[in-house]
Amino acid sequence: MSSSRLRIPRVWPAGQSRPRLAVVGGSPHAPVIRKLDCLQLPVGDLQAGVAFYERLGHEVIWRRANQVGLRLPDTDAELVLQTEREGARVDLLVEDVRAAVERFVAEGGRVVVGPFPIEIGLCAVVADPHGNELELLDMSKGPLDP
After folding, report:
1. Which helix (H) or strand (E) covers residue 51, if one does?
2. Is the residue at 81 inside a domain?
3. Strand-strand pairing, 89-94 and 133-137
4. Minimal CA–CA distance to 92: which of 21, 145, 28, 44?
5. Which domain holds residue 57?
6. Which of 18, 32, 65, 73 is deepest in the core (most CB within 10 A)?
7. Which of 20-24, 35-39, 88-92 has the lowest mean pLDDT?
8. Is the residue at 18 inside a domain?
9. Which residues 6+ apart lie within 8 Å of 61 measured at CB?
């Protein structure tokens, strides 16, 4: 395979523009979850984890003391290697964490960990009625600097 990145074109039906993301407070029926932000994977040794995924072709896009973000070429979602906690986690981006948690609970979910500050905004952990725990985050402070 060549070193150029594969790009999947985003094609919408003729005469239609790309759908806009709804704001949580804008409508009681607007989607709460905007997109997949990242997949977090725990590693015992951060440098060894980075070396492995770099050999698989993933580029480091940012580093912190206990986390490294790696590019996924066909999306702006990231693969995040981290040493802070066990278990893989999926982070889901929402417009506003507090509003999303409120709506999640109103619809039958529950709060596992209430909103707390993170480097880019706020995060909370909720569970749906089936017991699936989801990490919700917003970017109210802006994206990470590389």
Report:
1. helix 46-55
2. yes
3. parallel
4. 21
5. 30-137
6. 32
7. 20-24
8. no
9. 69, 70, 71, 78, 146
